[in-house]
Design a protein that fits this description.
This protein is α+β, with helices and mostly antiparallel strands. It contains five helices and six strands, in the order βαβαβββααβα. A hairpin with a 5-residue loop joins β3 and β4.
């Protein structure tokens, strides 16, 4: 049973379209200890929502962990890691932060509670409901 996650990227830095074009991409540049620990906890085959932060503020796709944590080549120093993410598919209907915040079922979702965290776990119940809202059918 895979675990579920949400990873954020600013679309002007790295967008869903770029992820799709690249197919598999290292998820680099995480410089927050909690987010790094979440990257370290990811296992090959885990699924993650791809979330556009700052511009858009919505879940736009689903990616899968293709390679577990390894040293982040963009880090000049420190114990920073990255994982490789592989495209699974676009969210048929992007799920906006406004929609998520409007639903009391998501009050304890990390995206709502810890809005600045860039890599966060998503419970199976939240995953299922967010997929339903976005029209995502399991692949």
């Amino acid at each position: 049973m895979p675990a579920y996650w949400l990873v954020k990227s600013e679309p002007d830095a790295f967008s869903w379209d770029q992820q799709v074009a690249n197919g598999v991409e290292p998820w680099t540049g995480v410089r927050n200890h909690m987010a790094r620990n979440n990257l370290k906890a990811m296992k090959k085959g885990d699924l993650s929502f791809f979330y556009h932060s700052n511009v858009g503020k919505e879940i736009v796709g689903v990616v899968e962990v293709a390679r577990e944590a390894y040293p982040d080549p963009t880090a000049e120093s420190g114990d920073w890691v990255c994982v490789d993410m592989k495209v699974v598919g676009p969210m048929p209907k992007p799920v906006t932060l406004v929609e998520i915040k409007a639903d009391p079922d998501f009050a304890d979702l990390a995206l709502v509670r810890q809005s600045r965290l860039s890599v966060m776990p998503v419970s199976a119940a939240h995953w299922k409901k967010l997929c339903k809202i976005g029209g995502w059918k399991s692949h």
